[in-house]
Design brief:
The structure is a homodimer.
Chain A lengths: L1 H20 L6 H13 L3 H12 L9 H11 L3 E3 L6 E3 L1 H20 L3 E2 L5 E3 H4 L3 H7 L2 E12 L6 E3 L4 E8 L4 H11 L8 E10 L13 E11 L2 H21 L5 E5 L11 E8 L5 E11 L1 H5 L3 E3 L5 E3 L1 E8 L1 H10 L16 E6 L4 H16 L4 E3 L7 H10 L4 E6 H5 L2 E6 L4 E6 L3 H26 L1 E3 L3 H11 L2 E5 L4 H11 L2 E6 L4 E5 L6 E9 L3
Parallel strand pairs in A: 3-8, 16-17, 16-18, 21-22
Antiparallel strand pairs in A: 1-2, 4-7, 5-6, 5-7, 8-9, 9-15, 10-11, 10-23, 11-12, 12-15, 13-14, 18-19, 19-20, 22-25, 23-25, 24-25
Chain lengths: 541, 541
Amino acid sequence: MILKTVKLVLRCLYIVNTLLRHKNRSLGSFFYSIKFLLTKRQSFIGICQIIYLMAKEITPRSEDYSKWYNDIVRKAGLAENSAVRGCMVIKPLGFGIWENMKSVLDGMFKDTGHVNAYFPLFIPKSFLSKEADHVEGFAKECAVVTHHRLMNNPNGSGVVVDPSARLEEELIVRPTSETIIWNTYKDWIKSYRDLPLLINQWANVVRWEMRTRPFLRTAEFLWQEGHTAHATSEEAVEEAKMIHEVYARFAEDYMAMPVIKGAKTESERFAGALETYTIEALMQDGKALQAGTSHFLGQNFAKAFDVKYLNRDNKEEHVWATSWGVSTRLVGGLIMTHSDDEGLVLPPKLAPTQVVIIPIPKPDPVIMEHADKLSAALKAQGIRVKIDRDEKKRPGFKFAQYEMEGVPVRVGIGKRDLENNVVEVARRDLKSKESVAIDGVVKYVADLLGEIQNNLLAKAKAFRSDHTTSVDNFEDFKSAIENKGGFVQAHWDGTPETEDKIKELTKASIRCIPNDSVLEEGKCVYSGKPSKQRVLFAKAY
Amino acid sequence: MILKTVKLVLRCLYIVNTLLRHKNRSLGSFFYSIKFLLTKRQSFIGICQIIYLMAKEITPRSEDYSKWYNDIVRKAGLAENSAVRGCMVIKPLGFGIWENMKSVLDGMFKDTGHVNAYFPLFIPKSFLSKEADHVEGFAKECAVVTHHRLMNNPNGSGVVVDPSARLEEELIVRPTSETIIWNTYKDWIKSYRDLPLLINQWANVVRWEMRTRPFLRTAEFLWQEGHTAHATSEEAVEEAKMIHEVYARFAEDYMAMPVIKGAKTESERFAGALETYTIEALMQDGKALQAGTSHFLGQNFAKAFDVKYLNRDNKEEHVWATSWGVSTRLVGGLIMTHSDDEGLVLPPKLAPTQVVIIPIPKPDPVIMEHADKLSAALKAQGIRVKIDRDEKKRPGFKFAQYEMEGVPVRVGIGKRDLENNVVEVARRDLKSKESVAIDGVVKYVADLLGEIQNNLLAKAKAFRSDHTTSVDNFEDFKSAIENKGGFVQAHWDGTPETEDKIKELTKASIRCIPNDSVLEEGKCVYSGKPSKQRVLFAKAY
């Protein structure tokens, strides 16, 4: 108990200190809570809860964007670091978002004719060497399985690797599955009748990254990887472009995250691809996030794994391939696109809980009857609702908690409000609230969810538009990248040398050659050589 | 082309040979096809298709059960071996069944208050040693990651492990996740308010099995593992039992696979558990399949990872745990419970395609109009329908193909039938068919799916009942196990020594101490010592 008191005091000191340091931070929930305390004569426990809550507040974006991101991930309970270097634990809220993403994307893949399958976690080492570019890209930092048995340590403590159980050929934990899949396709594809083969897999992959950040870059991550086989080059390109569209549609329509569609330059392509199509999003710190890629692989993997088919003229040809993937990185993009200094902000379409109902000041039979009725009515509309029945926590604490967790809509049901036949509906994105007549509240909430979804997309689009700059000389280029951040549209001479030089000088890379880039005569901002269109530069994650 | 002709001839010889050897096999589809050929003057391609199809037929159960199983897995396109020893590729049909299982189970877990999360693939080697029994069970045959980098082979060919990239501590690819999860729970659980913690994970795990069989026992497999933490022993036992019920309900209501619920004997328990509840199913060869287990882990893992909570009296206590899992092994159980010598038989509730519509003899506008209309009407009832629009394959070929793939209901739409306003509806389980008036076909098919589901369960129950024997002496015991197979109910003296001895002599193990076992005075079939109830013996997978 003494220890707990000391901890509490330390927390209070921390808060006061925090408050003094950041005079401009949003104190809405704090003042609400103070007012609540003063007017309702709350107990000591209530005060403690609010103090504890304040200690949970997060670093403002303006102060340290990177710390802000980590704070949200940790304090909203999205993920945390594990005992294994670079691997994260995805906590229920973070995983709930990923589950919703999976479910929507899986439906989109199936609607476009794809089926799911599952290929082995391990890839024989020799497979990685079969495609020359691929091995350069993926056979470097990876997890290598060399043994298949442990034994009791002869010295009696714990277990050690059994040296006699060395594998003949080492196995690599898949960093991506082109090689093992194309080795399998060899047996599946004989004739043009077997094509196209449209397969997707949901899986975990491992890349031994040196610097990791939850969701954005982790050693192990979850993703989907589509691997398709086609009779002609045209069909394969069409597939890669179609999936590119699916990804863009998912990002905008579900994540409310606007993206620029375009092609990667040669040096930014996937290892083994002839063309990589990308969707690029802009984060609130002005850095770009590559959110999904779709690759036209030509016949590279078919040749490496000898996958041929008999065409309609009974002649053997190598098969044409695509691969494409999005990963748990999308969760990172979602967090960074919408969240604010009070915590996570989630677009309703992907929020695990869309509406939370909170009894005020606490659950009692009359309030709960209304809460249950409202919850059932919302559920009947397909809305994901939760009632907070906790009797120990105060409303102020709960409000701040759901704000932190990004629940789009909060409905407060209070005794006095009920007498007036109203409830209080608050929206997370604008932090505003309204009294709404109970009669119309279901429709109001359903509409509000749609409005929040639209508002988040509009806001993100406005941000991107404010942070996209067209420049025509290298001074402006450097200044835009350095001072303003965001996307910079500039002419480029098309050479990898210039691309590298610009990256070296400014840390900005070419994110893509946008699909909708207009053809215009211009001069490369760096070399002055002629160029036919602007490409998109930015610093990137 | 010459090669192809030779192959064809060899296939024909194979078929004739097969036919001669197995006079009693079901030749329905063959004769149908022959009749079809003779009456409709089919082309050479048609004849080839049927010959090819016959070559795809499977070994009868009566001849070689194990080969029958492997044939179905391969020929129905459920799974195949991969280039990595013991790891399978789960093909679209097999994965589709698993997806349906996942979706139902996930809903059942959520309905009982669980949420999903995701924990790392890798476990630090030292974690496995922390729980004494657990290390004995799981730290033996496993995949060990020792390095994190490959490099180009100095001799110029391929890649080799970079000796400088040795990990400080080896990582084990999870064989099960108790250790890494309880190491995480340490930070999540502080007070009784944090309990119960009800988390599930869908994941891949690896156990380096020596003898593998698709779905039933593979080095890598997919599963779910629930890991819950509770304040009291009673609550944890209740959770383990509740999940045990969920598993049994899933097996019977969805898989149409009846199971015996019971507790494992001490020697058959999960490594680290105080009690293991199991569901045991009976396969058509009379061997038992352990289909799912739920474990009460006591405080073993809480103590090993020092997970304590402050109880309501403000005292520290160790947390109580459960874990529970089912895996892709269920797909193996499903195959073996219902399938026959014509191929896979699937219970409608889990069949990826519940109804296939086949135009006879081939798609034409009038037939397809009816097919599309029927498909839409069935889909509106939530039924998973597929129309086979392939113009190159003959009906006989298609019939046999969907029989092989276990599609529960086949609707044939023919021109002449349409004139009479009927279609032909065939059910896979009984291989019978009916002419059904078009007007009532949607209801007929919907009802039929329910009837097939019930029939499969009833049939499996009857089989089990026919293959369950109660014996009172060891001669009868041995004879039942050896000659009849199936479950044997017998008295046992409760000692591991007797259990081991019986297993050694008969290969039968105690599958469980059934929940509904009646208390009765008896004598152990082996030792003659007193016993209070019968336990369930069988040879097992």
